[in-house]
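Subject: sequence -> structure tokens, single chain

Hey, anyone have a minute? Need the predicted structure for the following. Not urgent.
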Amino acid sequence: MIDWSEVGFNSGQNAIQRGSQFTIKGHIEYLDPNTASWRLIGAPMDTEVYVKVDGIEYKVGSGSSDKDSNGNPGTGYFIVTSMIGGDVPAGAGQLKVKVLANMLYAGSEIEETQMQGMPAKPKQESVLASKPKVKARTK
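Reply:
Had a minute. Here:
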């Protein structure tokens, strides 16, 4: 879930300057098969931020969900500071946050729509059928 972003994802700021840093904050939940409710993950997962321009994705940042809700050491929340590098061409693009699978959870991703600067429907990918899926959505 994207909790806050300096650009895109409903932030009101849709332009990103090459070489300028921007931050995306969020948390990761999984669907508990026993209770059918979404819960905060119990083991950190790696997160990656991409910008897609002309159909090509460029990785612009990475981090881990190794924070608590206040940004202190913990589990489930991430703060990723990213920067558009010189390898990314100028033009309209879309931001995407990917959560990479680990030993406990399947991966997931969320992408904003190009025209609206808002998140598209969450897209979840199961790496192994036995792993709980994590939830990727905006608040």
